[in-house]
Amino acid sequence: MTISVLNRDGAELSLGQLHDQAEQIDDELMPCRSNNPELWFAESPSDVEYAKQLCLECPVRALCLSGALERREPWGVWGGQLFLQGVVIPRKRPRGRPRKNEVAA
């Protein structure tokens, strides 16, 4: 199965062609290429949230997310979403036992 989308001219592009177009974008505009790549696979929930926030302004965010969904990425932040075992999850929980009482943030 191939994913296709319409580009600005109305022509359909395959996922591979979209990837080729992403290669033409300056690396400085893509946070995963201009920051520490390990941030997108961090253990700390705060680092994961920071990576998700950085993705919001990325020009290829939708392409990244659709590709990760198609590949069922096993873990990491892709397209501004956190993946675990191929499924998007809302947030990363810290290690250890959950608190008995909710703490006000």
TrEMBL record:
Cofactor section: [4Fe-4S] cluster
Keyword set includes Iron: yes
Record-level GO BP terms: cell redox homeostasis; negative regulation of DNA-templated transcription
GO MF assignments: 4 iron, 4 sulfur cluster binding; DNA binding; metal ion binding; protein-disulfide reductase [NAD(P)H] activity
Keywords: 4Fe-4S, Disulfide bond, DNA-binding, Iron, Iron-sulfur, Metal-binding, Transcription, Transcription regulation
InterPro entries assigned to the protein according to its UniProt record, in alphabetical order: 4FE4S_WBL, AT_hook_DNA-bd_motif, Whib
Domain 4Fe-4S Wbl-type: 31-88
Family listed: Belongs to the WhiB family.
PANTHER family xref list: TRANSCRIPTIONAL REGULATOR WHIB7-RELATED, TRANSCRIPTIONAL REGULATOR WHID-RELATED
Protein name in the entry: Unannotated protein
